[in-house]
Q: What sequence folds into this?
């Protein structure tokens, strides 16, 4: 491959130390994580809280130095000045100086990027219009809603028109309208051919936006694959709850290679969406004994649940 | 350096609009009121009292300004994490620290100028004049002291993990720094090894803030004050140079530690 | 910055601190050679040094500490209740403190010397203070003028002491207390024509409220004696 990866992480390890110096508490945040992101790709990194997603992103942006391993951005060491000039970063819940306006904040960041005054002013106006804040650009940021601040954050990340954008939990804490607005902005960035790397724990957004996805759990990368592959390999499933299952019905389920487990006198069975109707037909349930759907998992969820269970068991 | 200047101006602007710093405007007015009150108490020596306590106020407003600046910035960095978006820009961490120093020093200069103006107005209203070159020089060197203290507070804001710790260490150093000048005299009188070593270490590490207090040396003019003694130009250069080099040493240490700090 | 080893950084910082310390010493030396105030505790401190005075001397805030001692002295002297204290004996430690903290606080020294010598009869202490002040500040002629006045007073040469006082009150920026002291000496000497002439001039020219109040009282007394 002649063109370097947009992001390349090689066996990165990172440990945090907290507590008092005489009794330090150490936590291994990253345990030998490796991954690559190609230019133009939209990559979603998912995992539960505390999986290490933000730590990994901070290593990639140079905010943290790994204890071992290496992170590269377009072949350049993460955190180097040359690398920083080529990406934009939106942290989780971005915070700005409260008494400045969006225009002043972006103008400040534009100066730091070395932009010329005229180009900077035009770009600031253009970006604020693009993110839908043209009307509020001179108001102090302390009067902005969370969604508005998120959009200012996105604007500052794109100020210098970077090739790569890091987004840390970009839709966390937003209302449904805010989520839709951000999603439309991301789709627009994707259409522009930018490389996007974002952290989230909302799988539905990954399914909608991403080309590839990675799953992190307890500091390890458990799974990396194209979203389309995962969707084709894992069916979406539903979990059914039965108040009672007779021996005949349990034998039918076993014959269909479905496992029923009982807890607190309730039987639960996970069934592929596509198989739901045939299974219910074969069970020949009496009237009034229809099961309740207690959860529905997308293919991604199914894949991740399997991967996490496998990691925890073994 | 350009990056530091940009950051400094931005910090100056955001701190200027921060309401917590209006306490400094109240302080300046209170110092003006104190000048009037002390003038009433001091009767015929009103001008001297206004001058001396005014310069004391200048010293305090300079220090409190830089302390509050760094406290507010530290709070924003640790609690609001405003720093993350800045440090991924093509800005070195030492440039950011220098920018903080520039911003806090600019605000200190503004507040010192404001207080000097208040004192001049009070003097004018009360029938005496504080406007003289020695007075302005004395105020300038107290401002220079504030710049040095800003570097010290900056170092503690990097080393300390909490805002209260930063305030305590900085203020302790501010007070001790006033006594440093006399440590040399004490050293000559000490024979014991351990005490002498300790005093020497303190002398080199602590800032010598007495150097910047020219009010005890300058002929500040006015009634019954000796005039005609002029300190040589070199007497002004040494405190300037001392302040610059000490602040540089402190900044280097702060920058090195900040480079290793995990955000 | 990142690649600089800690040992080298500490070496650079140590060198900078050494240079800074050298510059501070030079600055201090040039100050000592030329400054008005000698450095603290090079001369023995007065026996009753206040906490504020001690701290001010240590912390390089000697002028402010001297000012504070002066204000405290005025407050002490301004309230009549301290009169029982052997004629404001408490002014003496204040005078010593003011002089030790700032031997160039001319007005403060003259004021306390005037109180001690002309008002309260503590002539030896007042003369001692002025003699030390004159030695420290030889270019200031008023110390010698006040010394002359107090010396005549000590020798009970009242006419000459009065002559000196008359010279002293004509000086610009003289302590206001001297105006009252001279006027009260005329009253004590029952020199009613001079009382009337002197206090009338004071009423026309002076602005100090207490002095004007005393002037009116004195003129009333002179009037009672037919002047």
A:
């Amino acid at each position: 491959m002649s063109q370097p990866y947009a992001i390349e992480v090689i066996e990165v390890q990172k440990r945090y130390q907290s507590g008092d110096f005489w009794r330090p508490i150490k936590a291994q945040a990253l345990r030998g994580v490796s991954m690559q992101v190609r230019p133009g790709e939209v990559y979603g990194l998912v995992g539960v809280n505390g999986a290490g997603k933000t730590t990994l992103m901070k290593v990639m942006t140079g905010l943290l130095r790994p204890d071992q391993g290496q992170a590269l951005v377009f072949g350049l060491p993460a955190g180097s000045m040359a690398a920083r000039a080529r990406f934009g970063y939106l942290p989780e819940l971005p915070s700005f100086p409260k008494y400045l306006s969006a225009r002043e904040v972006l103008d400040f960041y534009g100066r730091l990027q070395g932009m010329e005054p005229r180009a900077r002013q035009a770009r600031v106006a253009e970006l604020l219009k693009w993110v839908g804040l043209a009307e509020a650009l001179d108001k102090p940021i302390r009067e902005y809603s969370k969604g508005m601040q998120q959009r200012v954050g996105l604007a500052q990340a794109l100020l210098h028109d970077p090739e790569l954008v890091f987004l840390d939990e970009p839709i966390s804490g937003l209302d449904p309208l805010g989520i839709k607005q951000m999603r439309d902005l991301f789709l627009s960035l994707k259409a522009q051919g930018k490389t996007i790397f974002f952290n989230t724990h909302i799988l539905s957004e990954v399914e909608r936006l991403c080309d590839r996805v990675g799953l992190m759990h307890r500091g390890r990368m458990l799974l990396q694959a194209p979203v389309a592959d995962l969707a084709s390999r894992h069916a979406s499933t539903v979990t059914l709850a039965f108040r009672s299952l007779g021996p005949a019905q349990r034998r039918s389920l076993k014959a269909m290679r479905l496992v029923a487990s009982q807890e607190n006198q309730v039987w639960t069975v996970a069934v592929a969406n596509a198989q739901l109707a045939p299974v219910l037909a074969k069970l020949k349930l009496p009237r009034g004994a229809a099961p309740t759907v207690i959860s529905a998992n997308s293919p991604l969820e199914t894949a991740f649940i399997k991967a996490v269970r496998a990691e925890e068991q073994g | 350096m350009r990056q530091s200047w940009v950051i400094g101006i931005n910090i100056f602007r955001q701190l200027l609009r921060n309401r917590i710093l209006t306490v400094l405007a109240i302080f300046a007015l209170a110092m003006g009121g104190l000048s009037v009150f002390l003038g009433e108490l001091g009767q015929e020596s009103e001008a001297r009292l206004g001058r001396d306590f005014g310069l004391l106020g200048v010293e305090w407003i300079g220090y409190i300004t830089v302390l509050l600046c760094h406290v507010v910035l530290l709070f924003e960095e640790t609690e609001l994490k405003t720093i993350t978006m800045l440090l991924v820009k093509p800005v070195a961490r030492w440039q950011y620290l220098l920018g903080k120093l520039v911003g806090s020093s600019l605000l200190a200069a503004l507040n010192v100028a404001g207080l000097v103006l208040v004192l001049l107005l009070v003097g004018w209203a009360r029938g005496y004049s504080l406007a003289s070159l020695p007075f302005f020089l004395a105020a300038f060197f107290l401002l220079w002291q504030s710049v040095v203290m800003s570097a010290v507070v900056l170092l503690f804001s990097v080393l300390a993990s909490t805002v209260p710790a930063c305030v305590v260490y900085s203020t302790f150093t501010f007070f001790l720094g006033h006594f440093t000048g006399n440590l040399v005299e004490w050293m000559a009188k000490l024979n014991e090894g351990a005490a002498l070593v300790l005093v020497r270490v303190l002398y080199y590490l602590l800032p010598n803030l007495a150097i910047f207090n020219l009010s005890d040396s300058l002929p500040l003019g006015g009634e019954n004050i000796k005039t005609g003694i002029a300190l040589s130009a070199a007497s002004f250069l040494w405190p300037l140079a001392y302040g610059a080099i000490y602040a540089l040493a402190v900044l280097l240490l702060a920058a090195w530690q900040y480079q290793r700090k995990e955000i | 910055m990142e690649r600089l080893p800690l040992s080298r950084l500490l070496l650079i910082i140590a060198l900078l601190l050494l240079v800074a310390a050298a510059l501070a010493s030079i600055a201090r030396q040039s100050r000592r050679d030329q400054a008005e105030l000698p450095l603290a505790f090079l001369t023995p401190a007065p026996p009753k040094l206040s906490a504020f005075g001690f701290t001010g001397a240590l912390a390089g805030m000697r002028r402010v500490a001297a000012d504070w001692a002066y204000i405290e002295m005025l407050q002490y002297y301004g309230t009549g209740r301290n009169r029982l204290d052997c004629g404001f004996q408490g002014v003496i430690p204040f005078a010593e403190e003011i002089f030790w903290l700032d031997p160039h606080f001319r007005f403060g020294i003259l004021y306390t010397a005037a109180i001690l010598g002309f008002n309260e009869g503590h002539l030896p202490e007042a003369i001692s203070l002025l003699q030390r002040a004159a030695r420290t500040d030889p270019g200031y002629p008023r110390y010698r003028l006040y010394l002359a006045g107090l010396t005549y007073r000590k020798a009970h040469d009242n006419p000459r002491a009065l002559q000196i006082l008359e010279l002293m009150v004509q000086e610009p920026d003289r302590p206001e207390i001297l105006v009252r002291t001279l006027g009260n000496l005329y009253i004590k000497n029952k020199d009613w024509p001079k009382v009337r002439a002197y206090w009338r001039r004071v009423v026309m020219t002076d602005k100090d409220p207490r002095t004007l109040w005393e002037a009116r009282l004195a003129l009333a007394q002179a009037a009672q004696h037919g002047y």
